[in-house]
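Weekly sync, protein design subgroup
Attendees: M.S., D.O., the rotation student, P.L. (late)

Item 1: inverse folding check
M.S. brought a backbone from last month's batch and wanted to see whether the design step gives back something sensible before we order anything. D.O. pointed out we never logged the input encoding, so this time it goes straight into the notes. C-alpha cells as presented (73 positions):
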C-alpha cells in the first residue's frame, strides 16, 4: 500500500466519521481541518488521536479569538 492509498483511505474514514459526528458541546456540525475536528458553530477543535476523533468537551481547544463559553463546573 502506498502512502497515497493510506491517505485516501484515511480520508474516506474521516468523511464517514464526519457524517456521524457532532460537536458534543453544542451538537453543531463538524468538519476536518488538518488533523483536527472543528465545530462549525462554536469553533471548538477536537484532536484526533491514532485516527480516532476525541469528541470530548474537556479535550477541545478553544479558538483564541472567541469568548470562553465553556461550561462552568
Ligand atoms: Zn460546537
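Designed sequence read out in the meeting:
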Amino acid at each position: 500500500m502506498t502512502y497515497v492509498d493510506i491517505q485516501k483511505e484515511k480520508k474516506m474514514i474521516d468523511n464517514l466519521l464526519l457524517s456521524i459526528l457532532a460537536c458534543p458541546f453544542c451538537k453543531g456540525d463538524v468538519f476536518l481541518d488538518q488533523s483536527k475536528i472543528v465545530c462549525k458553530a462554536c469553533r471548538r477543535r477536537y484532536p484526533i488521536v491514532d485516527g480516532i476523533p476525541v469528541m470530548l468537551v474537556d479535550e477541545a481547544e478553544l479558538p483564541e479569538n472567541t469568548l470562553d463559553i465553556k461550561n462552568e463546573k
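Discussion: The pocket of zinc ion is lined by residues 23, 25-26, 28, 39, 41-42, 44 (CB under 6 Å). The mean pLDDT is 84.
Action: P.L. to compare against the previous round before Friday.
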